[in-house]
Amino acid sequence: MLTIGLYVDNLERGAYDIPFMMSNWDADKIIIFAGSVVTENILRTQLNDYVDIVNIGIPVNRPPDIPRAFNACVDYCYDVIKTDALLFMHADTHITKACMQFIKDTYDKSYAVSLIYDHIQLYNYMWVAYPSVVLSNTDTIVKWDETGDGSLLQGVYEPRKNYIHHHYDRDMIHDIGYITIDKYVKKMSSHNHITGWKDSWKSKVIEAFGVSKEHGLREAYKMIKRYCPLVPIRPEPYAEVLDYYQAWEEYHMCVDFMGKM
Question: In the chain, N or C: fewer CB atoms in 10 Å?
């Protein structure tokens, strides 16, 4: 049995689009884990009956709550529902149909795999991030480092038999947490409510977007340039995302803005 699991909290702040996250999923069982009653209730209004919703009871108040919740979800899938394999992913990760097929082929071979991906903000390539999508199985149960923020795995998995470590195909995964202006502002606002992530710059850029898109983009891209070059995403691999959010015009506006920065 292949199970797909995803954990989400603070859904009331609007930073996550779970129905779209699920659009290319294909598995024997799907479970969406909620961190709180508020998020659970929102999920029940959004999702169809074929999806199981489980309140794991671990809300995100600080960054280490995220991997702690992830690991509780992994334990639930293996210990409670007794799944053979688990595809677990971050709540702002949209996988392509090609990625889903790759996962199913890997599952059929009884392999496990972790997939790394391009982190995106405001249509700009940032850096390769680790990992957002993990297929584990009963031979290789993969968990997250609980001292971090959900971005690192726990332990060393490379030597394990039938495990593919950090597979990378930049067109397989859409990182959409910060991709559009609307999602960028909502994600910044959501993180600004979490102890350890709240800072004055997030407040500043949120306020700047409240003045105008141009003012907000200028502040955001100035900060991004401190960490990496401004390199627009290739639109073709993100066509599904740009279509869904009706963001083609905004994409071209942001690309033009990057060129002026």
Answer: C
Confidence category of residue 15, pLDDT binned at 50, 70, 90: confident
Per-residue pLDDT of 117-145, as tens digits, reads 999 999 999 999 988 899 999 999 999 99
Question: Are residues 7 and 69 in contact, defined by beta-carbon separation less than 8 angstroms?
Answer: yes
Q: Which residues pair with 5 in a beta bridge?
A: 31, 88
Domain count, the chain: 2
Which pTM was predicted?
A: 0.94
Q: Within this chain, do residues 67 and 107 fall inside the same structural domain, yes or no? A: yes
Range of the domain at 245: 181-260
Q: What is the pLDDT of residue 159?
A: 66
Q: From 34, 38, 31, 37, select the one nearest 52 (Cα to Cα).
A: 31
Where in 138-200 does DSSP place strands (E)?
163-168, 173-175
Of the candidates 217, 156, 149, 233, the residue with the CA atom closest to the CA atom of residue 182: 217
Cα 79 to chain centroid, rounded: 24
Question: In terms of domains, do 216 and 256 share one?
Answer: yes
Q: Do 31 and 104 share a structural domain? A: yes
In the chain, what's the furthest Cα-to-Cα distance?
54
Same domain, 31 and 156: yes
Residues 141 and 197 in one domain: no
**Model confidence at 158, in pLDDT bands (50, 70, 90)?**
low
d(CA 66, CA 93): 15
**pLDDT reading at 157 higher than 70:** no
Quick one: pLDDT at residue 50? 75
The last residue of a domain, from among 130, 156, 175:
175
Q: Does one domain contain both 161 and 256?
A: no
